[in-house]
Amino acid sequence: MTRHGLSLGGPLQGVLAEYVCLHENFAVKAPTLLTDEEASTLPVAALTAWFALIETGHLKEGQTVLVQGTSGVALFGLQFAQAFGARVIVTSRGVEKLERAKALGASA
User: Fold this and answer.
1) Between 49 and which of 60, 72, 76, 81 could a Cys-Cys bridge form, CB atoms 3.0 to 4.6 Å apart?
2) Tens digit of each residue's pLDDT (9 = 90 or more) over 82-106
3) Among 49, 45, 41, 1, which Cα is nearest to 25's?
4) What is the pLDDT of residues 15-52, one digit of tens each?
5) What is the rounded CA–CA span in Å between residue 81 and residue 101?
6) What is d(CA 56, CA 24) in angstroms, rounded to the nearest whole number?
7) DSSP output for 50-104
8) Is 88 in contact with 65 (CB distance < 8 Å)?
9) Number of CB atoms found within 10 A of residue 48's CB
């Protein structure tokens, strides 16, 4: 299984298998509005943003983060950066998408 504090994949064995047995604490209920395929992308998008900003980028409170676009990775990045006390700037060509980003906490 996994050691405390580490996740599957990355430096540990992943889950490329037909069946995998996990403890129930590792599972979460997917939002009902998403298909299985859509829900399966959430951890990938979230972990990509997390590793870029937190693990690799060592994000600190008060820093400014530029998020390009409004994809899943970008929106997770926005939310993680805001949670860590960073100022977040989002770029997008869509006015509605920028409004949504501001509603999620983007500064500009």
Assistant:
1) 76
2) 999 999 999 999 999 999 999 999 9
3) 1
4) 788 888 888 887 888 889 999 998 888 888 998 999 99
5) 13
6) 29
7) HIIIIIIT---TT-EEEEESSSHHHHHHHHHHHHTT-EEEEE-S-HHHHHHHHHT
8) yes
9) 16
Q: Give the residue carrying structure tokens 């500064």.
A: 107
Q: For residues 94 and 70, is the Cβ–Cβ distance under 8 A?
A: yes
For the question of whether the overall pTM of this predicted structure is more than 0.90, the answer is: no
The one-letter code for the residue type at 10 is: G
Q: Which residue has the tokens 């037909």?
A: 18
Please give the backbone phi and psi of residue 22, each rounded to the nearest 5 degrees, phi first.
-125, 155
